[in-house]
Design goal:
Length: 147
Amino acid sequence: MPEEPSIHPIIHGWPSQIVKEGTKKHPHFQIGLWDDRVFIWLALIYELDGKQRIASSYLKHFSELKTLPSDYVFSLDHMTKPVIDLPDITEKNLERFRDVKKCEFLLGKNIAKENAILLDGDQFIKEAKKGYTFFVAFLPACHAIKI
């Protein structure tokens, strides 16, 4: 029987930077896994300071968000496995992130457990760094937040 999720820890992922206040209040990068894949995320969790401002900025620059590689995905909940292909993102998704207190926004890449890149540590690190390079473009909306 799978372990029941807790509302406190990040069960399936590991933040790449730690702040003493915890990661949920800050935009953060995650590398983690489900039973069928590894994910590389820019995570904006529902407890995020400045969430409405960040979401509004993403809405303002929606067309730029759509320029990320088509193999990227997003999720509105870090506790569930389903993801949506980035080409299918809508402004309504970002409005939900902005307006619904418990809604989150995770942007990233999933790598299937069968993918050979996961057998080569150097290739995986290169892929993770490439993902982070794309994510950094979406951090300016967050720059006023103390990290």
